[in-house]
Amino acid sequence: MKRRHLLASAALGLGLAFSGAANAQMDKVKACFVYVGPVGDGGWTYQHDVGRQDVEAAFGDRVETAFQENVPEGADAERVLTQMALSGCNIIFTTSFGYMDPTNAVAAKFPNVMFEHATGYKRDHPNVSTYNARFYEGRAVQGTIAGRMTKTNKIGYIASFPIPEVVMGINSYYLHAKKVNPDVELTVVWAYTWFDPAKEADAAKAMIEQGVDVIAAHTDSTAPLAEAAKSNGAVIGFGQASDMSEYAPSPRVSSIIDNWGPYYVKRVGQLLDGTYESGDAWEGISGGEVLIGDITDAVPAEVKAEAEAMRDAIAAGSYHPFTGPINKQDGSAWLAEGQTAPDGDLLGMGFYVEGITGEIPK
Amino acid sequence: MLRLEKRPTPSQFWQYGTPIVAVLLTMIVGGILFAMLGKDPIAVIRTIFWDPIFGEFAFYLRGQLLVKAGPLILIAIGLALGFRAGIWNIGAEGQYIMGAVIGASVGLAVYPTETRLIYPVMVIAGALGGWLWAMIPAILKTRFNTNEILVSLMLVYVAETILAKAATGFLRNPDGAGFPGSRNFSSYKAASNPELIAGSGLHWGGVAALVTAILVYILLQRHILGFQIKLAGQAPRAARFHGVNPTRLVVFCMGVSGALAGLAGLFEVTGPAGQISIDFNSGYGFTAIIVAFLGRLNPIGIVFAGLLMALTYVGGEMAATNLGLPSAAIQVFQGMLLFFLLGVDVLSNYRIRMFMGAK
Fold first, then answer.
1. pTM score, two decimals?
2. Which domain holds residue A209?
3. pLDDT tens digit string along A216-268?
4. Where residue A235 sits, what CATH number does that domain have?
5. Same domain, A187 and A309
6. Shortest CA gap A183–chain B (Å)
7. Does the beta carbon of B205 lie under 8 angstroms from any beta carbon of chain A?
8. How far is CA A70 from CA A66, A114, A142, in A?
9. Distance between CA atoms of residues B154 and B137, nearest Å
């Protein structure tokens, strides 16, 4: 019940679009999906499967989909991918970071099958593409709400693993909380898991005991929200990966929703009409891959308006969540006034921004 | 009325007959389950049991059976030794992880040295890693009389945490831009465990599993230690009179099963898996418990049981992808196998008698 979602690495040629091998039109496409969890997990895998259903709805008879859930990363993934390629899949989406090496290994053997790997950075073969979403954009919106809503000036973040994507989210969350509330302090707890309700609940409990009253999570279960719900409204949190609306209007005051449908529909459509090319995609709020779940009435109207303005500015491209001046934790300069973070810096992010206490585990 | 009547001695026929009956019952009840899910039961059963061996893609899948069965057999044989003596090592999953982590650490420490000595040293380190991890419950049991089931099981979660730490910390690929996961052994020749014959699926782990099966078979049949193990399980009191030292037996059985699980982990990480990643372990240590019982705790039986279990995995994946079966249904199907085996087992010790009339 663990999953990995990491970001593509700049070091390995971000934005370099390889020209894919498929360019003839196709009458029918078989699209296959490999999931790391069960489709009923209510989070990461569930959202990918919603995307798969979007593909079916969009193309009807012209597409056939198949999927395999609960596929362990490593040797099992390689076998599942090989079986899929052998059984006639034209395009295979591998939806967890740990499938990176198996995806590339199998892609080498099946040059006519297109492979799409979520959250990885290796594209060793012309038929491998990578894709991910700019979740840090959603963290900016959450940070804004957190900074405004905290009464104790202590906000928390349940982090999964010390990898760039998670660090990026923490930084974005903190920067935007601090922007609206200079006194805010951030507590980060490393859970070392993507999905472990017991551990996540413990982390939330520990933070609540320290006086934290807004908790964001980079882990997938609803346990932190369930823990917050015991506080009779004193502690709030956010839905992660899926909307988690069963905890609305409070403690869940908003959410980040992974929305893979638009990308899946686009890629399968391109394969059908012969315009498909391999490459690397990193879309965010503007591309519809990151959705901000409904901000509930537990949040005052002016805070809601401010958060929505943030969301809309990011969507319109007029605001980048990492806009200078921003210093690193050690005080050294990172971004100058008005400068926005290059994607490469984000994808390899291994430092906290100034103001966050504590260290990233090494 | 039906009545169970204890047999004077366990039935030889049912001893070997029960696994077959259990498999047949699993097929029938599993078929009913698949039918209730709206799938053609015949097609599903055929996809699971027939297609991987004789179907269209058998050329690839046959090899995969060996890949999947290798670690299961290796671990199950070790577990069976302990189970026979009444020593319950439930934490093979943790020993498997520690074997992989320690073996991989040794290999990666000398990267990129290319010499033939590296791999044998890694194999020893892997076995040692699993052995050490199994020694914790063994020593706690012999010194403080703790329950080895609980301790070994709990240590699985400790091992998983160490694994996460290794993948994100001390074994992380320095050229991997900060991403979790070690270097891939497939690109480090001296430390890798490739297929011995391309396409066969057979790597050193498979070879080790077969050799171990034979050695343990001999141990159990011909060696005094094998006799002591069997005696300790069947008649602990008699064993003590016979001069069996229970402490030594616990240390031996836990140690062997730990070392074999560690070996399986090492062969897996350097071979099919290729790298240490956050969730490198995929349940072999737990599945091996089923395999051990399915194989009647007999090394040769375990080889067949391991292959059968591998078949349900590989075929189950085919059924999931091609026929849209939920993966939980496959897991239920595999669980039924153990359930029916244990259930039907009653026949080897009891016979069923029809009982007519009043009491």
1. 0.82
2. 135-257+290-347
3. 999 888 899 999 999 888 999 999 988 998 998 889 999 999 999 999 999 99
4. 3.40.50.2300
5. yes
6. 31
7. no
8. 14, 22, 30
9. 10
